[in-house]
Design brief:
heterodimer, A: alpha+beta, Glutaredoxin, six-stranded mixed beta sheet, globular, B: 671 residues, alpha+beta, Jelly Rolls, five-stranded antiparallel beta sheet, 19% strand
């Protein structure tokens, strides 16, 4: 299990304030350093996440108008709860406001306080997220967050319009299990299926 | 957003595409003009094919009415049109010609693809067609009758799909013919599809007295079709792009007092708890139907026993048409393991005509397919279905991991293979032309399963209708071997026995039916009637009383109660019973006739005369005419009495007593 920590209260309190995400240099010695889908390691300053005590952080990229990400809310909540991992729901599409995102969180059983927007597109760029829903699991090393896993939650969707009767690969759950045991997260077994992110360029 | 790619790079292939789809004539195409834009090229496709669902408040999960909407979803539009997931349309072209064909042309798909590749340019906004306007109001104006599900139902946020049946009692006081129906599912994004089933006998409500208002789980249901030959005739189906379902002028469907509508819904969790409460709007026709289609089914569910891992399990059925029909619509149906569905007809001359071909079945996108024009099939045509199932791990829709043996059944984890056809007999056999079709269908079922209780029951009922009581009795008895205490079968057997004159056996059968289901009013009514007939008057009265207590609006039982009371000489009690009926149903013939008889016996000739006149206004009847003539004659009003006695003689020419009274009356008048 991941250490029990309180959920992060906020990254940026302002509704549409730009969050100054910065890419930090790669730390060659970092054991949890992983390659992103783009082929280069990514780190994010830990203090920018407002959760210095937390060793890991889970980001869900979601969109209020994406039926696929909406259907994943119960599963996303289940995983956050099971691993007691601090979780933020990132609404990356530039047309979504924080106020609307909080309302959406409420109606789908997630905490409004965990909603964030990404008006500058920094979060999308620094994590490499492209789709909603998509999960990014960050682990903290010193003063930086490292992307330990980015990709689909599971393999329920093969593509839009083709859904499995049964989930066979719980990719994010496997990543959370591995990281909580101090191992490297296995990469996702297939692409994330959902709605394209319309983030800031 | 501006186009991100050089226009010229895609100009040539696009010009070719446009030439196929929207650019008529030999218009000179400049490279710059050939760029595919939302306004000029894509909006017309989207408005024609997508926005009926994809508008705010529609059943699609997002709107596509504006350029900004389309730009947001452009990439997905390209993916889902290329894969042909959208618009939802399963039939293979060239294998049946259907109305409302939603299949996009290859040219339209190419246009969308090119537009996305070009960076989704808007083009000149003034060039765009006017966006269609959608309303949440009833499409045909205010309905004549709106039925609502009793209470809202919660659909859970996650988990498997939910299949629920809601009972909507129509509460009609007289028969109506329905020319159109619109279903408002409540929350269109939750409801995947819905079927309305006519429950003529309120069977589902009776079977679930405590919980019918909440909804009864189940993917497919079977209901009792009632006392008379009355086959299902219409596909009453809703899917996300459905609006009002309008029937041809000659083919409205009948809704009687006491009928329920069952709304069978496939509900899909959306990620949050949703509440739904469906409504159905009905529009009445001014005239009854003059053409009577029926639904025919091909199936062979008893062979559905699919081994785990079998990727190519085939189920087939065939049915020879005993008479010529027009096929009006088809509805292929399976659950999650169905893969390829073939429906075709082999004509007597050897020609094969496709009814439908679904190469890649998806229960999520099932639909009724109405033929563009009726397909005539001559007598002797053999209808075929051939469905292939994939119960391997290679079928992503397989609900079982690992795969397990799957058999036929009504649950979503069971499998099913049905091909329903809506057909219209084209030769009038003098009586109900659907009867031979029903007989052929049921005989076919019996061929596949000699103990099929539904086939045995329906064939027995048809034999009863045809006066073949002995044969009917045999078939009912065979059905009892599979369903030993089925109250419907026991009641059918009792009816056949009663009609063949064996009232003692009939009484025993009806008694067994009542014992099996004390709330089954039809069996108790028949038992009471037999008791009345056999002069067991106290027993008859008690049984009619029980029915009336269960349903005070059962006027036939009220009339029976009054008759049993009258036969025991309890005239005052009987008169009160008939009074009560007439208060609720002033045109009840039996109550008027019986009350008139009681008044006549009590020498209250004014009341007696008034009741008989009212009774005869309901429908002609020899006994009522004769009684009225006697009432008038006993007041020496011989001239007034004569036409009624003549009418009685006309209606019952074999009745010697009427003949004798008519002679006396004529002699009286001559004197």
């Amino acid at each position: 299990m991941l250490p029990l920590t309180a959920k992060i209260a906020s990254i940026a309190s302002g509704a549409s304030r730009c969050i100054p995400w910065l890419l930090m240099p790669i730390r060659p010695a970092g054991l949890l350093l992983l390659l992103s889908a783009l082929g280069h390691a990514q780190t994010i300053p830990a203090d920018k996440l407002g959760a210095p005590a937390s060793p890991s952080l889970l980001l869900y990229f979601v969109a209020s108008d994406c039926p696929v990400s909406n259907r994943y809310f119960p599963e996303m909540e289940r995983l956050s709860s099971r691993f007691s991992v601090p979780t933020l729901y990132i609404y990356p599409n530039t047309y979504e406001t924080l106020a609307e995102s909080k309302l959406h969180q409420s109606s789908f059983g997630a905490s409004p306080a965990d909603a964030r927007t990404d008006p500058s597109g920094d979060l999308v760029r620094s994590t490499g997220a492209r789709t909603t829903p998509e999960a990014v699991l960050l682990t903290r090393q010193g003063t930086a967050w490292h992307v330990a896993y980015r990709g689909r939650i599971d393999d329920r969707y093969i593509h839009i319009g083709l859904e499995r009767g049964h989930v066979e690969h719980h990719d994010l759950e496997a990543a959370l299990t591995a990281v909580s045991a101090g191992r490297l997260a296995p990469p996702p077994s297939g692409p994330a299926v959902g709605c394209a992110i319309m983030g800031a360029k | 957003m501006k186009a991100a790619f050089p226009v010229t790079a895609i100009a040539l292939p696009l010009a070719a595409v446009l030439g196929l789809s929207v650019a008529p004539g030999p218009k000179k195409v400049h490279a710059a003009q050939a760029a595919v834009t939302w306004s000029h090229n894509v909006a017309p496709i989207v408005y024609k094919n997508c926005t009926a669902c994809h508008h705010v408040g529609g059943s699609g999960p997002f709107s596509l009415l504006t350029y900004r909407d389309a730009q947001r979803w452009g990439t997905m539009m390209q993916q889902v049109t290329t894969s042909r997931y959208m618009p939802p349309w399963l039939p293979e072209p060239g294998h049946g010609d259907f109305q409302d064909n939603r299949r996009l042309s290859a040219a339209d798909i190419a246009t969308i693809k090119a537009w996305v590749a070009a960076g989704m340019p808007q083009g000149d906004a003034a060039d765009a067609p006017k966006a269609p306007v959608y309303t949440s109001e009833w499409q045909l104006g205010p309905p004549d009758l709106i039925l609502s599900v009793a209470s809202p139902t919660q659909v859970p946020a996650s988990g498997p799909d939910v299949f629920e049946n809601f009972v909507l009692p129509a509460n009609l006081s007289s028969t109506k013919w329905i020319r159109a129906m619109e279903i408002k599912p409540g929350s269109p994004q939750v409801v995947h599809h819905a079927n309305v089933i006519l429950d003529r006998t309120a069977a589902l409500r009776r079977a679930h007295p405590a919980d019918w208002q909440r909804g009864i789980p189940g993917m497919d249901i079977t209901v009792d079709s009632g006392q008379n030959f009355d086959p299902d005739s219409h596909f009453l189906f809703w899917k996300p792009d459905s609006t009002a379902l309008v029937e041809p002028d000659t083919m409205p469907w009948r809704l009687d007092p006491g009928n329920d509508l069952i709304l069978n819904m496939h509900l899909k969790p959306t990620g949050r708890v949703e509440q739904i409460q469906a409504r159905i709007g009905l529009y009445f026709a001014s005239k009854p139907a003059t053409q009577f289609p029926m639904l025919l089914q091909l199936e062979h569910d008893s062979t559905l026993d699919i081994p785990a891992g079998d990727a190519h399990f085939v189920v087939e059925d065939s049915l020879t048409l005993p008479e010529a029909v027009d096929v009006l619509a088809v509805y292929p149906h399976a659950h999650y393991l169905g893969r390829r569905m073939e429906g075709f007809a082999k004509l007597p001359g050897g020609e094969t005509k496709w009814l439908v071909l679904v190469p890649d079945w998806d229960i999520e996108r099932q639909a009724i397919y109405r033929l563009s024009k009726p397909l005539p099939l001559p007598k002797g045509t053999v209808l075929h279905m051939r469905y292939t199932y994939d119960n391997s791990a290679g079928n992503p829709r397989n609900p079982h991991t690992p795969a397990v043996r799957v058999r036929g059944g009504n649950n979503s984890t069971d499998e099913m293979g049905h091909l329903w056809l809506q057909v219209l007999p084209t030769e009038n056999a003098g009586k109900d032309a659907r009867m031979p079709l029903e007989k052929a269908w049921m005989s076919n079922r019996l061929r596949k399963d000699p103990s099929d209780p539904t086939a045995l029951f329906n064939l027995a009922s048809m034999d009863t209708e045809a006066g073949e009581y002995t044969e009917a009795g045999k078939l009912y008895t065979q059905a009892l071997a599979t369903k030993p205490n089925d109250p419907r079968v026991l009641t059918g057997l009792g009816t056949a026995q009663s009609l063949s004159g064996d009232t003692a056996a009939a009484q025993a059968s009806f008694q067994a039916a009542v014992t099996a289901d004390p709330n089954y009013a039809d069996a108790r009514f028949d038992l009471a009637k037999i008791n009345l007939q056999r002069n067991n008057l106290a027993a008859a009265e008690a049984q009619f009383q029980t029915i009336v207590q269960l349903n005070p609006n059962d006027f036939a039982a009220q009339d029976g109660l009054g008759s049993a009371q009258l036969a025991q000489g309890k005239s005052d009690v009987a008169a009160a019973t008939f009074d009560a009926v007439l208060k609720a149903d002033p045109a009840n013939f039996d109550a008027l006739y019986n009350r008139g008889q009681i008044a006549a016996a009590a020498s209250d000739l004014a009341t007696a005369e008034a009741d008989m006149v009212r009774a005869l206004a309901v429908h002609p009847d020899a006994d009522a005419e004769r009684t009225l003539a006697i009432i008038l004659a006993s007041q020496n009003r011989f001239a007034a009495a004569l036409p009624h006695m003549q009418a009685a003689a006309r209606l019952a020419p074999a009745d010697e007593e009427t003949k004798r009274l008519l002679g006396r009356l004529q002699a009286e008048l001559q004197r």
